[in-house]
Amino acid sequence: MASEQGPALKTGDRIEVTIEKVAHGGHFIARHNGAVIFVRHAIPGEVCTIELTSVGASFNRADVVSIQTPSEFRVDPACSYSHPGGCGGCDFQHISDAHQRTLKSQVITEQFARIAKMDVVVEVEKISESLNWRTRAIATTNKDGKLGFYNARSHTVVPVTDCLICVDEMKFSEISQRSLKADFRVEVSVSNTGERTIALASPQGPQRARVTEGPAVLHEKVLNRTLEVSQESFWQSHKSAPEVLTNAVLEFAQFKQGEHVLDLYGGVGLFTAAILDVVGETGRIDLIEGSKSATNDASRNFNSHSNVKIITGDVAKHLPRITSADVIVLDPPREGAGKEVVAQLARLRPRSIIYVACDPAALARDSAYLANHSFSLVKMRAFDLFPMTHHIECVALYAQTDVS
């Protein structure tokens, strides 16, 4: 929204601004004549010339065109496709590794302050180097059959010959050289046991991807168990994420023999596999997951464990049927659990709730809901499981503040 001090901004306008701070979603905030602008490819403190890419009533969007005063944290991107108009996959390639994590910490703090009215300061922990970490990738071919990724906020496919954040075992550069069908989604998955699967689908609509190469079911070894993961089932994309997140959940929960645990949005059973060893044969786990593919995998993964119950369906619909739980672990999709589910969690009065989140805004919102039900945030860890991008993974522990 433009103020009375200057003319309204238009798409294509070029203006000089000073970048103020990082915003959630991989953007940076600048202001011009009272107008708020979300800028990509910038760093706080920089003086830049930006070009408006879209304008709106409450905020505008822009890309950096040139930099008059560069930040001390600016670096040359490792990937030649990481630039305005290029691949939209990596928001932060132009920022030094350590400062990426600093900015992500600031995002968490800002989201909790704004949404939950809570003072949260957490260090985003380094897990790996910034390249060669992704084990799952979804690329798209353009009308000429060239493999690539979408430009930011666009349906334009930017062809690439390699993706540097993908693990070497994916052999992305080899796949990009193949003769591929035009306008197709290409899903590539690599397991830590050495398997690779390629599946194809039309990019439009809900069509199921068809496996064209490799096994339909991958095998992932985490701690002391091997889990089956179908091509269409969710699995963490960072090669270290399954073990890192499992260890964080175990650390926070301090499970005990004989406890009843809920594993909500439990997927193929990543956390259930580790929890089983702690609660023992006298304990029990209810895993609830909406994906039929994932629960089919979970059923195979735990078919010899009578104390694991696998439930396929909406968590919000199944939770009211449960009358008690000692500990609840939840790993919801990006939009978070929401008010209805949080109310059901609180109704069960578990001694601990461990929340695994890939979106700090959703986590902050649900933290406020939990606080309204007398569950306070005890501690949190944050992990840089998506280097070179704005994404962050958090694990938070909540406990009752009022047990009366």
Model description:
The protein has 404 residues and is of the alpha/beta class. The chain folds into three domains: 1-73, Beta Barrel (OB fold (Dihydrolipoamide Acetyltransferase, E2P)), CATH 2.40.50; 100-129 and 236-400, Rossmann fold, CATH 3.40.50; 136-230, no CATH class. Helices cover 21% and strands 31% of the residues. The protein has an eight-stranded mixed β-sheet with strand order 7-21-22-20-19-16-17-18, sandwiched between helices. A six-stranded mixed β-sheet has the order 1-5-6-4-3-2. A six-stranded antiparallel β-sheet has the order 10-9-8-11-12-13, with no helix packed on it. A hairpin with an 8-residue loop joins strand 21 (375-384) and strand 22 (393-400). Helix 1 (97-116) runs parallel beside helix 8 and helix 3 runs parallel beside helix 4 (270-279). The longest helix has 20 residues, at 97-116. The N and C termini lie far apart (49 Å). 45% of the residues are buried. The mean pLDDT is 95.
- Give the mean pLDDT: 95
What CATH architecture of the largest domain do you see? 3-Layer(aba) Sandwich
CATH topology of the largest domain: Rossmann fold
Based on DSSP secondary structure assignment, what is the total number of beta strands?
A: 22
Span of the ends, CA to CA:
49 Å
Give the class from helix and strand content and strand pairing: alpha/beta
* CATH homologous superfamily caption of the largest domain: Vaccinia Virus protein VP39
Largest sheet: 8 strands, mixed
Secondary-structure element pattern, one letter each: EEEEEEHEEEEHEEEEEHEHEHEHEHEHEE
- Proportion of beta-strand residues: 25-35%
State the name of the first-level CATH class of the largest domain: Alpha Beta
Strand order of the largest sheet: 7-21-22-20-19-16-17-18
- The domain count comes to 3
**Number of continuous helical runs:** 8
Low-pLDDT ranges: none
